[in-house]
Amino acid sequence: MQTDRRFGLRMDDCMQLSDPQRFTLVSVIIVLTVMIATGIAAPPFYRRAMTERETAVMQDMISIIAREEEAEGYLSASYLANYTEGAARDHLEISFRSLTRLPGFFRIKVFGPDHKIAWSDDAALIGTAQTHNPQAVARAFVENLPSAFNPALPVPGVENLIEFYIPFRLSGSSAVAGVVSLYRSAGPIDAAIKQGVLLLWTLFGIGGLLMYVALYSLFLAVYRSRRAISSQFATLSNTHERLIQTEKLSAMGQMVSEIAHQLNNPLVGVINLAQLAEREIGNPERVKELLGQVRSAGEHCREYVQRVLQLSQLNRAETQPADINRLARDTVAFFQQSLGRHLSVTIDASAEPLISDVDENLVRNALFNLIHNASQADPNGTVVVSVTPEQRDDKPGVSIAVSDRGPGFLPESADKLFTPFFTTQRGGTGLGLSIAQHIAVLHGGSISAQNRPEGGASFTIWIPTIEAAA
Prior knowledge:
Layout: E1 3-4, E2 9-10, H1 11-15, H2 19-71, H3 77-81, H4 86-96, E3 105-111, E4 117-120, H5 134-143, E5 147-149, E6 161-168, E7 178-185, H6 187-279, H7 284-312, E8 320-323, H8 324-339, E9 344-348, E10 355-358, H9 360-377, E11 382-392, E12 395-403, H10 432-442, E13 446-451, E14 457-464, H11 466-469
Parallel strand pairs: 9-11
Antiparallel strand pairs: 1-2, 3-4, 3-7, 5-6, 6-7, 8-10, 11-12, 12-14, 13-14
Helix pairs in contact: 2-6, 6-7, 8-9, 9-10
């Protein structure tokens, strides 16, 4: 058992959550994951977008200032080139001093065409090329493209700075006249980013909560419906199991009753014959006759018990590939020889083999029972055994049909034909058809019965061929 020492909780208990609790936990994890991912991805995106917007604003503002100052005569290309002269320095001071009044700006530098500082709010920088990004200055002169950087200058009282490089032109020339470098605090941008992230978190939190409530309501409805269905299904399953158990007990009771009935009659006869033999003890011939009848009754009981044991022992088959046509012909020949009478049994089977994976003894037994039942239904008629290939449910197989011209079976008996101990024949055990059905099912097949339109009945065993098993 694992235990979280910080909280004193068993890990197994944490894993044993109900479905609603698991749904809530997963929802919280998803919302928190989205919020954390947003908090990580949003600031860089916002910073880049806001910096680009600020750069565009700076470029527009400096272009306006340059045009206005040039129109008033305070700014010209010569002043930028000759910035060391007193008049040029004064005019540049007038032109760009207004930038120092912008909120949040800490350093302003104006680069002339020689890429040196022509004017700055720090006079000590004039005439130098001091900058953190000389490549940005050169690119601004060549490509006329503004840019912004975060140099993180150590300015007292300021946590972060953004450095802008803004080129400007003067009238009458397509070349860049100068580049203004401005350092501005990133505090307003950082504050706006924090507010934006907080706003996103709030929206995600509220949206996630609303979505959770809606989805949880739907989930809870489905969950309760599923629980109700599961409960009903469990109740039906239990009821079904009880019904099956009741049917099994009923069938077992019926079987025991039938077995007792079948054995009781000959046993009563044995007792009566034994009593008669006791009274006829002085008549050996009569005693011999009675003992013969006792033996006959005993053999009848033994045959019946063997049939019952055969039905209970049909649980598995030892299968191997066999030709069903040959098996049917052998069974018909054996039947005719075993009865010792000239019953007309014909077989319709092709010479081409129909191979199936079967237990020959079991299939022969099932077919023998069907032929025997057909011969009893019409002792003076002709029994026809036909073997034909037949496909069922997209599976190749073979049908073995046994037909007679007897009276057939009644409609009310159709559902009971394959029930153990059910029989319409005097002296029958009612086990032949049930054994045949069990054998067919044991081989993955089935058995069916139908009355023939021209009279008589036909019983058909279908089993899959070896191709279907493959």
